[in-house]
Predict the 3D structure of the following.
Amino acid sequence: MKEATICMEDIEEIISTHFTKVKEPRKGDLVAYYNDQLAEKYGEEYRLTHTSVYKGNGMVESVWGSTKAVFLHPKFYVPEVYGNRILYFRLKSPRIDTKTEIPLK
């Protein structure tokens, strides 16, 4: 079976459509990492670089790069390139239409 990949632009669209930004995370919320230096370098307002899932007590769960392993780690214990800013997002509704296809690039 061929492995699917998804680009950050697709993830940004999913976040803007299905999630709401929150100040304080709860277990299960999405954690989005932004690299302001990369954004400035490329003349962008922001640059989404990584996402993870908030697990509570300042810990997140994520996959780094092309590894298959899932890491449980403190929220800022990530590769430096992931950036210096994080935002938290909560799913707008627990029901997402699973029949809607998201085109992968």
In short: Residues 8-91 form one domain. The chain has a mean pLDDT of 83. The helical segments are 8-18, 36-41. The radius of gyration is 14 Å.
